[in-house]
Amino acid sequence: MVNHYTSNDLIPLVVDLDGTLTLTDTLVESLVQLVKGDPLSLLHLPSSLMAGRAAFKRYIASRVTIKVNLFPYHSQLLAYLKDEKAKGRKLVLATAAHISIAKAVAAHLGLFDEIIATEAGGNLKGSAKLEMIRKSVGERFAYAGDSKADMPIWESAEAAVLVSVSRSLASMVERSTFVEREFPREQTGPKDWIKAIRVYQWIKNSLVFIPLLTSFGFSDPTKVIDACFAFIAFSFAASATYILNDIWDIDNDRMHPRKRSRPFASARISIPLGVFASFILLVVSLMIAATLSKGFLISLLTYIAITSAYSWILKTYVLIDVLILSLLYTLRILAGSLAIEVSTSSWLMAFSVFLFFGLAIIKRCTELVSLADSGQTATQGRNYLVADLTVLWPLGIGTSLNAVVVFGLYINSAETQARYDSPQLLWLVGVGLLYWVSRLWIKTLRREMPDDPIIFAVKDFGSRVTVICMVAVTIAAHFLHFNGI
């Protein structure tokens, strides 16, 4: 049960930072930024940690400047602090974080009268923090915290403000201290994890089934099962990289109007927990891949390496990013052929590169159109300007049409003539393909395209009907013979 103050409202309120005022851990955020800016700094971390936690925090703080204005703050607690400040109550920020971070947060919020933080003397946590609080504000104070490590402080405080604590910890505090306010924990649920691993993106990994379709091997149960395992392996590997990419790109996501709600940007899932989940997904993915074939395992490792390079640096180069995306899509098709051990046509590879290069440019055009509508001129974390639309529109449309041309040349190849009983029926597929890519570009121009054209194609009724018809005609062209065709 939540209790409120009556007569002691104006005693100083001491507020913790990590996990209390902010939903994230500032030390972990600093580590991410340090590694992102200077990967070789990892070599120096063990020696600085051996010198003590205070020295460790000082080393990291001296090499990074984190953007405290982008932190996900506890909105309800922040509103409460503003109300208390308006009443004339003294607010003190007391944290084990380095003093530079505490000062930056205090300057950004403009709420605190005093700061207690880790400096050269030692790490301010638990009893050490309590001692500094007593020296600073005296024996009478209220304390806002979130951790069991704060128990010595709560036991010495006149009142407690509980932030995101477990029910068991809340009961412990209530037995020893008057509870001024309690802000319940927002539980991380399955929806958060589904968003984190981006299950909706797994549809892209269905490309591993393309060789099963083009080789017409779906009548072979072994090939079907192997293709399904290949899909699972790629999906788990992709999810592992999505998590790491979101952690790596956390600042840019927080500046994006939609991406700021992602689980890591909003701190609904902690960074350490995300790294652990990514590791588990990656291990399971590689174990599955190893059971299929050496070629498939190598292709999956190549995918992981390219995706990691894309997340770390390649996505910051104009056009290189969309080229890499098209190659990653094509790599999925190649991996599918290695999983079921069938050869892959060079026509299919060329068609795939052109098609997915065009789709990747649609993705960039969609983002730039959205930025233009909101009055912005450039992307965050990517080297694109709204002015680049002048080049991207014709480049993307031309590339998409090249995919249609390659498909038309494929129809007349000797390989196609030998494989299909009625190869001329494939011209209907070519017409459907022309309609589909043209429809995607029209939707992009009309601002009706979401961030990802492949996800749009799955949800869009017209796209679904077109793709289903193209697949049906392809199967008919292979199995059915029409006189005169």
Task: Please describe the structure with a list of short key phrases separated by commas or semicolons.
6 strands, six-stranded parallel β-sheet, elongated, single chain, alpha/beta, 485 residues
3D architecture notes:
The protein is of the alpha/beta class. The protein is 59% helix and 6% strand. The protein has 21 helices and six strands. The chain has helices spanning 26-37, 45-50, 53-61, 75-86, 99-109, 127-137, 151-156, 167-176, 190-197, 210-214, 221-248, 250-254, 271-292, 294-312, 320-340, 346-373, 389-411, 414-419, 426-445, 453-459, 461-479; strands at 13-15, 91-98, 114-118, 142-145, 159-163, 178-183. It has a six-stranded parallel β-sheet with strand order 3-2-1-4-5-6, sandwiched between helices. Helix 7 links the parallel strand 4 (142-145) and strand 5 (159-163). Helix 11 (221-248) runs parallel beside helix 14 (294-312) and helix 14 (294-312) packs antiparallel against helix 15 (320-340).
Distance between the termini: 79 Å
Query: Radius of gyration over alpha carbons?
Result: 28 Å
Structural class: alpha/beta
Q: Could you report the average pLDDT, rounded to the nearest whole number? A: 89
Biggest sheet character: 6 strands, parallel
Secondary-structure element series: EHHHHEHEHEHEHEHHHHHHHHHHHHH
Number-wise, the strands total: 6
Estimated helix fraction: 55-70%
Estimated share of beta-strand residues: 5-15%
Unreliable residue runs: 1-8
Task: Note the total helix count.
Answer: 21
From the spread of the alpha carbons, the general shape counts as: elongated
> Which sequence of strands runs across the widest sheet?
3-2-1-4-5-6
